[in-house]
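Q: Could you write out the predicted structure for this multi-component system? I'm mainly interested in how the pieces pack against one another.
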Amino acid sequence: MNGFACKANFSASDFFFAGLAKPQPINNTLGSIVTLASVFQVPGLNTLGVSLNRIDFAPGGLNPPHEHPRATEILFVLYGELLAHFITTANVLVSVTLKQGDIFTFPKGLVHFETNIGKGPAASISGFNSQNPGREDIPTSLFAATPPVPDSVLSKTFQISYQEVDKIKSKIAGNP
Amino acid sequence: MNGFACKANFSASDFFFAGLAKPQPINNTLGSIVTLASVFQVPGLNTLGVSLNRIDFAPGGLNPPHEHPRATEILFVLYGELLAHFITTANVLVSVTLKQGDIFTFPKGLVHFETNIGKGPAASISGFNSQNPGREDIPTSLFAATPPVPDSVLSKTFQISYQEVDKIKSKIAGNP
Amino acid sequence: MNGFACKANFSASDFFFAGLAKPQPINNTLGSIVTLASVFQVPGLNTLGVSLNRIDFAPGGLNPPHEHPRATEILFVLYGELLAHFITTANVLVSVTLKQGDIFTFPKGLVHFETNIGKGPAASISGFNSQNPGREDIPTSLFAATPPVPDSVLSKTFQISYQEVDKIKSKIAGNP
Amino acid sequence: MNGFACKANFSASDFFFAGLAKPQPINNTLGSIVTLASVFQVPGLNTLGVSLNRIDFAPGGLNPPHEHPRATEILFVLYGELLAHFITTANVLVSVTLKQGDIFTFPKGLVHFETNIGKGPAASISGFNSQNPGREDIPTSLFAATPPVPDSVLSKTFQISYQEVDKIKSKIAGNP
Amino acid sequence: MNGFACKANFSASDFFFAGLAKPQPINNTLGSIVTLASVFQVPGLNTLGVSLNRIDFAPGGLNPPHEHPRATEILFVLYGELLAHFITTANVLVSVTLKQGDIFTFPKGLVHFETNIGKGPAASISGFNSQNPGREDIPTSLFAATPPVPDSVLSKTFQISYQEVDKIKSKIAGNP
Amino acid sequence: MNGFACKANFSASDFFFAGLAKPQPINNTLGSIVTLASVFQVPGLNTLGVSLNRIDFAPGGLNPPHEHPRATEILFVLYGELLAHFITTANVLVSVTLKQGDIFTFPKGLVHFETNIGKGPAASISGFNSQNPGREDIPTSLFAATPPVPDSVLSKTFQISYQEVDKIKSKIAGNP
C-alpha cells in the first residue's frame, strides 16, 4: 500500500491533536493514566509509522508492567521525578531515575513500568515508531481478561493457590 | 546490510540443525521446556528472518504466559493435545483446543500460553518470522529478575501484600 | 496499513487450521503433494507475515525444483528420510540428508527440491516468513504455462530440439 | 543484522540521556537551535528505529525550511506558541498554530518549518521513527555547502542574479 | 496488506508503459521536464516497490534542486552530458560529470540537481526503490506554494528583503 | 544497522559507475550478456536498496529463464526490439513486445526471460529495488551446478531419460 489508499482530501487538522496538552484526571488505584495520540486520534499518521502518548502520574502512581507489541518507546519527562524500568529477555532489570527533561528507552516488546517517586504529580511524553503501538497490560491481561484466564494457569504460573488467584482477579477487576 | 556481511565460506551444516528431533527432559515445576532453532543454533539463518522452536510438555505441563518481542508464532502440534491461548490488547482471551497436526497463531508481542490437556506427553513445532524472536517470560521477568523488581511495584501491580510478593519470588526463584 | 484494515470481528477459528494434520493422497507422477496454511486458509495471518505448509512424499517421491518469491522456508521432518537441496546464485548445490526431526533452510527465492530417500512415506512441516509465500514451480512454469512458453525459448534454454521440448511439454501437461 | 551486532555489555545509561532537559543558548540569526537525542547520543537506540530531539526558539525565532530524509516527525510543544507548516509534494502549504501541549506531524521527507509567534521563548520535543533521521537544511545546503553550489544553478533555480546569489551566500555563510 | 488487495484480473499491459520512449517538449524557463513511470502510470507496480522516470534536458537545462521523500534514485544517461550533484546532511556538495551511459546515485531524501552541460539535448532514465517516490521541488515548494509560504519566513530563511522574496515568488509563479 | 556502518570517508566516485555505458562482447551460445551495477560495483549503494543492470542481446539472443530472489526488475529498452515474458505463480505466461523506450516489469522472484526479435543488436537498462538483487539462472542452476544436481532429480522433474539429462548437462556446461 505504501501511503496510497489514504484520504482523497485532507486538512491540517488531520495531522494535529490537542488532546495531550492537559493532565487527565487520575481516578484509579494505580495512580496513572495514559492518553494516546495514535492513528485513531490523528488520522494523518496513517502509513507514517510514528505516534506519541502522554502519561500522567499521581504522587506514588505506577504505570504497571506492560509492553507494546509493535513499537519501541522513548520517554521524555515533562515534570516530576520517575523511577523507570524495563526487563530484558534475559530477565535483567534495567532501571533509571528520571528528572524533568530526562529521556529513557523501552525496546520493542519488552516489559516496562514507571513509578512517580517525586512529591507532586508527574507527566511524560513518549514517542513510538508505530502509528498504532498497542499495549499489552500484564495485570489486566492475566487477571481481568474476558473470558478469564483459567485459575489453573495462573495458579501454576505464579505458584499461588486458586484462592489467591481469585483474590487478585476480584481486586483487579474491581480496580483496573 | 541486506544479506551482505555474512560468512565468506559456508557449508550445508550452517543451514541444518538436528537439535529439535528429540524430546528434551523436563525437570521443572511447570512441566514444559523450549528448544530453540534460531540464528544462534543455525548460523545460516542470518538475515533470513525465520526460525523454529520445539516445545515439550509433560502431562499437565504449562508453557507459562510469555510473548515474543520480535515475531509472530505459528504452532503445529507434533503429538498430544494442547489448550492454547493468547490475550489481545483489548484483554480478550482467545482459546483453542489443539490435537495432533492442528495449528494456531500467536500474533507478534501478544501474551500467550499453552497447557498439555492430554494424558501423555505432548510436543509442538513453531515457526517464527524472525531469526531471533526473543522471549519475555512473564513470571520470571517479574518475579525472578536480576536485580529484583521492587516489592512495591509488584504489590501495587497485583494488589497483593509484600509478603505475598516475597512468597511468589522465592517460589519462582527456586523453581524457574 | 500495518495491521489496520482487518476484520471488525474475529474468533479463535481465524487463527486455527486443522488441514495440516493428516497426510494428503498423492496421485501424481512426482510422488509428493503440498498442503498450504497461508493467509487464504488462516485469515488471522493477515498482516502477521508468517505461514506453514505440509509436504507429503510417497516412497521415492520428489518435490520438484521450485522457489518461493516472497519467503525463506525452514523445513522440519515429521517422519521419513529426505535428501534436500538448494542451489545458490553462484550455482553451488547445497545438500543434506534429513531424518525425523531434522531441520533445513531454503533461503528466499533460491531454487530447492527434496526427495524421499526412505523406504516408507515421509512428511514435513515448513515455516515461512510471509503470510503468502507463493511458489514458482520450475517444470510446470516452463513446460506447462498458459499460454505456453515458446518452443524456441525452451529449445535454446536447454539446448534441446523442438521435438524434445514438445515431448517434455506433453508429459508434464499430462502428469503435472 | 536485526538487532544482532550490538554491544556485548550494556548498562541503563545506554538508553538514557539528560541532554534535552534544558534550553540551549540561541546565538544565531534565525533564533532557534536543535538538540539531538539520536543513536549518536543514546547508543541503546541502535536497531530500535526511534529518536527524539528538542528545539528551542527565541521570540520570533525560525526553525528554517528543512526535511528529514529518513523519518516522519511528530512535534509536541513544551511551552510557547508556534506557527508550524509543511509543504506537500503538490506544493500545498499545510499550516497550524500550536499552543503548549499541542502536537503536529511532519511526514517523512517533506519540507517543514516552525516560527515562534509567542511573546516569550518556546520549546518543543519531537519523536522520529528512525534512530538517525538526518536533517537536510534548505538554506545552508543550497547557499553554504562545501564546495559551494554553482552560482549558475542557484541563479536559475531562484531566478535571481549572480550578485543576489552571492549576497545570500555571504549572509548565510556568515550567519548560519 | 503485503501484495493482497490487488486487481482480480490483470493483463500484460498493467506492467508495461510506452510513455518514456520519446523526449517530451520542454517549454519552461529551467529547460528540463520529468516524465513518470510510477504506480499511477503502471498499475502493476502496486506493492512491488520500484519505478522509473525519464528526464529531458534542453541545452543548458537544469533539473532544479529537489528530493524524493520515499526513494533513492539511480540515474543513467541516455544521451548528452550532465553535471550532477547531491548535497549531504553535512552540507557537502558531491558532484560528477556524466557522459552517455554513466550512472550516478542520489540517496533517499537528499537534495540533488542536474545540469545539461553538453551542446545538444540530453536525457536520462532513473530507477527508484518506491512505486511512488514523490518529488519535493525546492524552488516551487518554497516560492510557489498554495497558500504561499509567508514572506517573513522566506525573508529570514534566505536573509533577503520582502521585496526580493516577492520578486522571486512572481518569477517562479510565472515560470514554474 | 540502518545506514550506520558505512565508510568513514566517501567520494563522488563511490556513487558513480561508467561500466554500463558500452555494449559488452557477446561470446556465448545464448546471445546475451548481463552487466551489473550493484553494491559490488557501486559501493555507495550500500544500505540504499537500489541498483541497475544492462543487458546486451545479439540478434536472436535470449536472456534465459531466471529470477531475482531479492528484487523486482523494471526494464527499459535502450535500442532494438525485445519479446519479454514472465510467468506467474499460477503458471500464466505474461508477454509483451517492447520497442526502444518501452518499459516492462518483472515482479520479485518470478521467472522471466527476453528474446531479441529485431534485426540488429538490442540493449536494455533495468532498475532493481535491492542493492544486490541476485540472479538464479534456471538452466545453469539445474544443469551446471557444482556439485551437479542428481540425474534422478532432473529425470523425474522434466520426465526425460538419464541420457537426455546428461546430454543437456554436457551442452550447458560447455556453453554456459
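A: Regarding packing and overall arrangement: The helical segments of chain F are 138-143, 151-158, 162-174.
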